[in-house]
Amino acid sequence: MHCTPIENWIMSKTGIKSRSREELKSYQLYKIKQTICYAKKHSVFYKKYLKGIAENEINSFENFENIPFTLPQHVEHNSIDFLCVPQKYISRIVTLRTSGTSGSEKRIYFTDNDLKLTVDFFYSGMKSVVDEDDKVLILMPGNTYGSIGHLLKAALDVLEVKCFIGDVIKDYADTAEFIKDKAISCIIGIPIQILKLSRIYPEIFGDNIKNILLSADYVPEVLIKEITDKFDCRVFTHYGMTEMGYGGGVECENLNGYHLREGDLYFEIIDPVSKKALKPGKQGEVVFTTLTREGMPLIRYATGDIASFKKENCKCGTFLQTMDRVTGREDNIIRFNGNKFIHMKDLDEVILSFEKVMDYKISIYEDKTTIGINTLTVEDFYRLRNIVADAVQTIIPDKIMVYYLKKNIEIKNSMLKRKIYDCRKKVLK
Questions:
Q1: Among 332, 269, 261, residue whose Cα is nearest residue 300
Q2: Residue 341 pLDDT
Q3: Burial, 284: exposed, middle or buried (Cβ in 10 Å; 0-12, 13-18, 19+)?
Q4: What distance in Å separates the CA atoms of residue 357 and residue 360, rounded to the nearest whole number?
Q5: Which has fewest Cβ within 10 Å: 102, 138, 368, 408?
Q6: What does the alpha-carbon distance between residue 276 and residue 265 come to, in Å, rounded to a whole number?
């Protein structure tokens, strides 16, 4: 097993001479202080938000943990105030719809240099996934400059790996035909779409696909196990979000957690209640700070994602920190009376274990929970309806009703994550 190529890239980028976490942490603390100074000087938001915090007083990570979190709501309400460069230097603006009912939007700004940093990370991370003989199909948006597909292709071009951009899947038959015609050996895509593709056209996975990289949403473990076992195919997962500059961490050949982009980002795992940093092995909220961002730096940005750092070093031999796969989001939980709750990941492991189910949508109301399931045929639905309901009933303390989704749940872009729709008016204690 080879050591993750991310390691050499980070050592070269940071200038550290030894494979030492202490040396890397010293670099990160230095860059944190630089980022605070830069943001306070150029960002309207941070000039006010961090008033009274002197960067020369941040002499330890313990000091840094006293700095308040940047919340998604801050970006939603003040996106333009985060800018640290004139707008004429912005090369890419990504507009993200929020999950609230107000229709509010967050805008994330990138300079050309910011985008090049992401290409750099993708270039190193993809070395674990592909080689020069591969043909790669990117099933994500990539037709606009600076989109995730465009940046991935730029990285693969430098690696001299043949690459096609197919956008998100709109026609599964066309996608399957393209994979066969072009002899695609590696696909990069959105988890639930790749699962559906593998269930409708299993022959293309058995005959063609060697490696898969899943990104842009939480990856159900049932999906990884099914594709790995059924097709003898390696399934890599990537962790990132637009606010990170798309790239945050990627698995190596060990396939057991993300090696993080530690030269560009500093990660923390925070206890959601105490707001204190947690030790490896303890699950909490992922928080990150950008270390090299030019257009829109973010300091202690609370992502809402749930994960933990691993206690042990990766078997690939790297000294880099490894993060366990993200298990979902804090806001993707159904809470019931009596302190009971269910994560979406729990529902995934139950509902998606039925191979005739292609996708599902869950909504919770005052008197019942409804689950809509996508199946290829109406006959499949009628065969599965009661079985799925009984299976879900074993993990959910509520009445449920299963209905058929006549229209598939459409994924419009790579940032639209699956979610639980909580339609209740009251707040449960």
A1: 269
A2: 82
A3: buried
A4: 8
A5: 102
A6: 19
List, in sequence order, the alpha helices (H) in 303-412.
Answer: 344-351, 378-393
Confidence of residue 291 (pLDDT cuts 50, 70, 90): very high
Per-chain mean pLDDT for the chain:
92
DSSP 157-188: HHTT-EEEE--S-S-HHHHHHHHHHTT--EEE
Show the tokens assigned to 296: 């829109």
Cα distances (Å, whole numbers) of residue 200 to 176, 193, 234, 365: 9, 11, 19, 32
CATH number of 1-326: 3.40.50.12780
Contact 159, 132 (CB under 8 A): yes
Q: How confident is the model at residue 283 (pLDDT cuts 50, 70, 90)?
A: very high
Spans of all domains in the chain? 1-326, 333-422
User: pLDDT at residue 407 above 80?
Assistant: no
**Cα–Cα distance measured from residue 152 to residue 129, given in angstroms and rounded to the nearest whole number:** 12
Residues 6 or more apart in contact with residue 17 via CB below 8 angstroms = 11, 23
Provide the H-helix boundaries in 94-136: 112-125
Give DSSP secondary structure letters for 306-332. EE-B-SSPPTT---S-EEPPP-EETTS
Q: Is the dihedral of CA 188, 251, 296, 107 positive or negative?
A: positive
Query: What residue type is assigned to position 292 of the chain?
Result: T
* Cβ atoms of residues 39 and 78 within 8 Å: no
The CATH class of the 333-422 domain is alpha beta
CA distance 392 to 352: 11
Asked if the model's pLDDT at residue 302 lies above 50, the reply is: yes
Residues 130, 103 contacting (CB under 8 angstroms): no
Going by C-alpha positions, the residue among 228, 225, 238 that lies closest to residue 326 is 238
CA nearest 262: which of 219, 309, 215? 309
Cα torsion angle, 318, 190, 381, 394, sign:
positive
What is residue 418's predicted lDDT score, i.e. its pLDDT? 86
